[in-house]
Design brief:
By secondary structure, the protein is of the alpha/beta class. It has 15 helices and 10 strands. Helix 1 packs across helix 8, helix 3 packs parallel to helix 5 and helix 3 packs across helix 8.
C-alpha cells in the first residue's frame, strides 16, 4: 500500500540546489575505506552552517515565503538542529524567528538558535507537544510555520544532498540516511532514485525510536507511545504523512541500531575521519560498522553514510570516550 501523495520532483530538488547555494555548503565526502575494510565514505553534513543538514530545507522554505510572510516572522518546533537552521535562514533573509524546543534540548542547540537571533520557547518533551505549542503561537502572533520535515519545500531542500552524492561519487552502490521525522530520507531518496534507480537507499533509526520502521512494517502511520535514544535528533513519536509516502516509494529498507553501536560510531568517526558527529549523525555509520547493513542488504560496492549533524558538547564526547 502506498499513501496518496504529491512526490517531490527532480526539478524541484534542482531548483532548491540553486536557491540555497548562497548559504548551504557543498559538503565533502571523507573516505574512510581503509579503516572500515570496505569502500566507505562519509557525507559530512555536520560541516554545514549551524552544524547540520537542516539549513538546506529551512533556507529553501523561508526563501520562498512572500515578503509579507517573512516580515511577520516564522516559527518552528525542533529538538535543536532544525531550530538553529530556521534561525540562521531567517536572519539571513531578514525574518524574525521563534523556535519551540523540548525542555530536554541540549544546551549547545538552544544557545546555537539564540546566537542566530531566535526567540526560544521550551515546551514538553515530544514532537507532538512542540508542534501544538508552535501552532498556537503561530495563530496568536501571525507567524508562518516552517515544519521540521513534513513539507515539500523542506524535503526538496534536503534532497539536494542526494544530487551532491551522485556527483561526488558516481559509482555509489548504497546510501544510508538517518531517519527522525523523515525529511532527510524522503528528499535524498527521491533525488537518488529519480536519477539512479539502481542505487540502494537505506534508512537508519535508533532501536528505541523506530517510528518509520513501524509505519513501513504496518503499511500505515504509527504513533509510538514513547521514544528513547541517545540520538536526540531522531526521536519523533510519529513521522510525517508526506515523508512516509516518500520512504514507502523510494527507500529500499529501514533498519535499526542500538545506542551502544551509535556511541561506538561517534568515537570511530572522530578517530578515523577527524570530525565530530553527534549521535543522530553517527547512526548511519553505526549500521555499517556493527553489521546491520550487511544483515539487511549485503552491499559490495561503495557505501556513503550521511553524517547529518555535529552539534554535540565536547564534554559529552569526553564522556563517551571515558565510558568506552
Amino acid at each position: 500500500m502506498t499513501t496518496t501523495a504529491t512526490f517531490v520532483s527532480l526539478d524541484a530538488i534542482r531548483a532548491a540546489a540553486e536557491r540555497i547555494k548562497s548559504t548551504a555548503r557543498v559538503t565533502p565526502l571523507i573516505g574512510v575505506s581503509t579503516a572500515a575494510g570496505r569502500p566507505f565514505h562519509l557525507k559530512c553534513e555536520n560541516l554545514q552552517p549551524a552544524g547540520a543538514f537542516k539549513i538546506r530545507g529551512a533556507f529553501n522554505m523561508v526563501a520562498q515565503l512572500d515578503p509579507a510572510e517573512r516580515a511577520a516572522g516564522v516559527i518552528t518546533y525542533s529538538s535543536g538542529n532544525h531550530g538553529q537552521a530556521v534561525a540562521l535562514a531567517a536572519r539571513t533573509l531578514g525574518a524574525p524567528a521563534v523556535v519551540v524546543m523540548p525542555t530536554t534540548a541540549p544546551r549547545i542547540k538552544i544557545e546555537g538558535a539564540q546566537r542566530y537571533g531566535a526567540e526560544i520557547i521550551l515546551e514538553g518533551t515530544t514532537s507532538l507537544e512542540r508542534r501544538a505549542r508552535a501552532e498556537a503561537e503561530a495563530a496568536a502572533r501571525g507567524l508562518t510555520i516552517v515544519p521540521p520535515f513534513d513539507h515539500e519545500w523542506i524535503i526538496a531542500g534536503q534532497g539536494t544532498i542526494g544530487l551532491e552524492i551522485l556527483e561526488q561519487r558516481p559509482d555509489v552502490a548504497a546510501v544510508l540516511l538517518p531517519i527522525g521525522g523523515g525529511g532527510l530520507a524522503a528528499g535524498v531518496a527521491a533525488a537518488i532514485k529519480q536519477v539512479r534507480a539502481d542505487v540502494t537507499v537505506i534508512g537508519v533509526e535508533p532501536v528505541g525510536s523506530a517510528a518509520m520502521k513501524a509505519a513501513v512494517d504496518a503499511g500505515h502511520l504509527v504513533t509510538l507511545p514513547k521514544t528513547e535514544s541517545i540520538a536526540d535528533g531522531l526521536l519523533p513519536t510519529r513521522v510525517g504523512d508526506i515523508t512516509f509516502a516518500h520512504v514507502q516509494r523510494f527507500v529500499d529498507r529501514v533498519i535499526t541500531v542500538d545506542d551502544p553501536a551509535i556511541v561506538s560510531a561517534v568515537l570511530w568517526i572522530v578517530a578515523n575521519a577527524k570530525v565530530i558527529a553527534e549521535p543522530s549523525g553517527a547512526a548511519t555509520t553505526a549500521a555499517v560498522l556493527n553489521g546491520a547493513l550487511d544483515a539487511a542488504l549485503p552491499i559490495t560496492g561503495p557505501v556513503v553514510a550521511v553524517v547529518s549533524g555535529g552539534n554535540m558538547d565536547p564534554s559529552r564526547l569526553a564522556e563517551f570516550a571515558h565510558a568506552n
